[in-house]
Amino acid sequence: MAKDPVRVLVTGAAGQIGYALVPMIARGIMLGADQPVILHMLDIPPAAEALNGVKMELIDAAFPLLKGVVATTDAVEGCTGVNVAVMVGGFPRKEGMERKDVMSKNVSIYKSQAAALEKHAAPNCKVLVVANPANTNALILKEFAPSIPEKNITCLTRLDHNRALGQVSERLSVPVSDVKNVIIWGNHSSSQYPDVNHASVKTSSGEKPVRELVKDDEWLNGEFIATVQQRGAAIIKARKLSSALSAASSACDHIRDWVLGTPEGTFVSMGVYSDGSYNVPAGLIYSFPVTCRNGEWSIVQGLPIDEASRKKMDLTAEELKEEKDLAYSCLS
User: Fold this and answer.
1) How many domains does the chain divide into?
2) pLDDT of residue 332 exceeding 90
3) Feature table: binding site for NAD(+)
């Protein structure tokens, strides 16, 4: 039996990440090779012509799974009936801008998009916020879309998670698919804490802890963490543009695992609404290790946390509290 198409919204669809993301979705990378999709692409009026160009290319690519394309600058049309929403559109920080200026621009964007999703998205729509500040944009969206369950509003830290997997894989010269269970704690910013204390690598003699194989705590506690935290900036320096293909790919990973489930024994990182687990203040959108089944994520419980980790986890929570306060001050 052919499946009914799933409607997937991508905001900021004419931008760099959007351009990398929409063909991945149309190819089945996000929802599976047997799942037809209808793409809803939303962008701002100045990008309307470019957006239409992306629509033309999607038609030209003749993707078998792509059953329709909506390209619009109207939020209501963009959000109507969507089952998955990937929020890539946002206001980027420009030179000379204060954090509060960027925050207030994004607060107003996410407030209005929340209202459109609230009224017009399909019930049980799953939302992934990619645009920075991702955790706090997701929090604003949650605030103004009260009928969307809080478990359905998430932000992207899978990019950081995948970056951490990549660094371990490079260091040990092993395939990245053999590395698992790194964790990104906290904010999708340079205060995040990439944690390898629970990570392992598949070897010919079974799974071994990453620390045992790397045999270099100085690197793991220093350069490794800094590289993952600063990777976005390193890519901007190299490409003169921010990471797009890796962000798009990790957005697909995030939604695919959420919808189709994580492999047994593997956890991934997702920015989710804190319930107070690991003494992280409730009411923040914070990145935790999660497993997914039947379209639901659950925070992995009971992992031992050492003192050094605790400090880093608290530091990034502190930054998120400050961002939350700043965002709410922009609302008043």
Assistant:
1) 2
2) no
3) 12-18, 43, 106, 130-132
